[in-house]
Amino acid sequence: MSWERQVSIKSKDEIAIMREAGIINAEALKAASEVCVPGATTWDVNAAADRVLDHYKVTSPFKGVPGPIPFPASTCVSVNDVLVHGIPSKKIVLHEGDIVSVDCGTTYKGFVADSAFTIGVGKVSEEAQKLMEVTENSLYIGIEKMVPGNYTGDVSAAIQEYVESHGFYVTKQYTGHGVGRRMWEAPQVPNYGTKGQGIRLRPGITIAIEPMVLVGTDATQVHQDGWAVSSADLSLTAHFEHSIAVTEEGPMILTLLENGEPPVSVTGRKKL
Questions:
Q1: Out of 3.40.50.720, 3.90.1260.10, 2.40.50.140, 3.90.230.10, which CATH number does the structure's domain 3-253 have?
Q2: pLDDT tens digits, residue range 170-200?
Q3: Please, which residues have CB within 8 angstroms of residue 9's CB and are 6 or more apart in sequence?
Q4: Rg of the Cα trace of the chain?
Q5: Tens digit of each residue's pLDDT (9 = 90 or more) over 145-158
Q6: What's the chain look like in SS3?
């Protein structure tokens, strides 16, 4: 069966529910970002997000995902060379100069929101700051292509071209994805591709766009826990993500705060 036939089209009412889920998810990420300070553990970061989810009496679709061990937390907290899927731990302590990626999902009224950010711990290196800014910018460049009549390949190509023009790499192993009633739906949306290829975008399609960017290589390696994924050369990595709905009026970012601001911006973005 083709990806086209597997794509789920959401109604306006369903998109409205996903926006509510996205607001909660954004609040959880904002709370998590405020704990990304020297001396905190990645478990502390996860706990901050959990407090928000608990307040709204919702759960994360991450918790319990099957794997070598069921994923044990509501968020993935990934530090420095860890690109994605870092398991929060009381043993992983944040230090000045680290960069931390936090990925969170929220299930609300049967629909999922999924988003992520990378932030610096205290003062970071020029390379780390550039990496985070390029990754964040590439996300919004990809989002701009999420309009009816474009193709998923237009989104992928825009992200790849921007990232590579700044001397960094996009991962070839991990992708963005459809999102809705399930955490992972069709279609897959890589961070590399060819314009005019893939699925044609139409109103009601909802996709989590998530540039995952590496400094030194596009190759990755999986840790012994079977979850965390690092750059193969242990160079720095960054990850930004939003859940997006394609609408007749253009892309709707579902995972902004209620006031329209992103939960975290390393480039100074305000209301979108």
A1: 3.90.230.10
A2: 999 999 999 999 999 999 999 999 999 999 9
A3: 202, 203, 204, 205
A4: 17
A5: 999 999 999 999 99
A6: CCHHHHCCCCCHHHHHHHHHHHHHHHHHHHHHHCCCCCCCEHHHHHHHHHHHHHHCCCECCCCCCCCCCCCCCCEEEEECCEEECCCCCCCCECCCCCEEEEEEEEEECCEEEEEEEEEECCCCCHHHHHHHHHHHHHHHHHHHCCCCCCEHHHHHHHHHHHHHHCCCEECCCCCEEECCCCCCEEEEECCCCCCCCCCECCCCCEEEECCEEECCCCCEEECCCCCCEEECCCCCEEECEEEEEEECCEEEECCCCCCCCCCCCCCCCCCC
Locate the domains of the chain by residue range: 3-253
C-beta atoms surrounding 249 within 10 Å: 9
